[in-house]
Specification:
With 244 residues, the chain is mainly alpha-helical. It contains five helices and no strands.
């Protein structure tokens, strides 16, 4: 009688453990979907401005999150198979991948926070130079398009102000057609509208495009960092709980 009771108890514990693993695997999938979504959203939404950054850390952080999120999909299926088949080898691989993904997400989060601290200095040091030296130059079409979109999206003109364009290689060349700012500085873009640098015609934003871009990138670096570190810690806690 005691042997039968013990066997029933073991069967009950096995069933409970299976359901518990399924629940944690679902939470793991949800966390991975959040990581993958933030990574893809970052690259799709901000890819236009990446050419204006001197460092590739912002893009690397997003790519790492995409990698981690993709691994979650594979690991999630492996976890389900391990639970259904009750294979120790699959479970061992499952927990190994959990640890790997935890480390990857942690790295992405840390990179985002480290870059967040350096963002302001990098923009102040490089953005004005990038805009004035590369705008409308041969072979720099990506930067030109990024600057035009930056000025239109954030309704700004120049790195610090519209006067920055007076030192631009493009504005000082004959190709500018006597423009004093690029046409993308204009509130309403019309042919040659950049010839008139007047508040009624071009954007005059205090702090220029640096302030706008810095705030924009800083907000999203915080999202990347919070998602990467937060989900990594949650998955790490789940993994340790399941192994006990």
């Amino acid at each position: 009688m005691s042997a039968a009771y013990k066997e029933d108890e073991e069967d009950w514990l096995t069933v409970c453990l299976k359901y518990l693993l399924f629940v944690f695997n679902f939470l793991f999938w949800v966390g991975g979907a959040a990581v993958l979504g933030v990574g893809v959203w970052t690259m799709v939404e901000k890819s236009n401005y990446l050419s204006l950054l001197a460092s590739s850390t912002f893009a690397v952080s997003a790519y790492i999150l995409i990698l981690a999120g993709s691994l979650v999909v594979v690991t999630g299926f492996l976890g389900c198979c391990a639970v259904i088949r009750e294979q120790r080898s699959c479970l061992s691989m499952y927990f190994f991948l959990l640890l790997l993904i935890f480390l990857i997400e942690l790295v992405a989060g840390v990179l985002a926070y480290v870059y967040y601290q350096r963002l302001s200095d990098e923009l102040k040091e490089h953005l004005n130079q990038t805009m004035t030296e590369n705008y409308a130059q041969q072979g720099k079409e990506t930067i030109t398009a990024a600057v035009d979109r930056l000025q239109q999206d954030f309704k700004c003109c120049g790195s610090n102000n519209s006067q920055d364009w007076m030192l631009s290689v493009y504005i000082r060349s004959e190709e500018s057609g006597n423009r004093v700012v690029p046409d993308s500085c204009c509130k309403t873009i019309t042919p040659d509208c950049g010839r008139r640098d007047h508040p009624s015609n071009v954007y005059k934003v205090e702090g220029g495009c640096i302030t706008k871009l810095e705030q924009f990138l800083a907000d999203h670096l915080l999202v990347i960092g919070a998602v990467g570190i937060g989900v990594a810690c949650l998955q790490g806690d789940c993994s340790r709980f399941l192994q006990t």
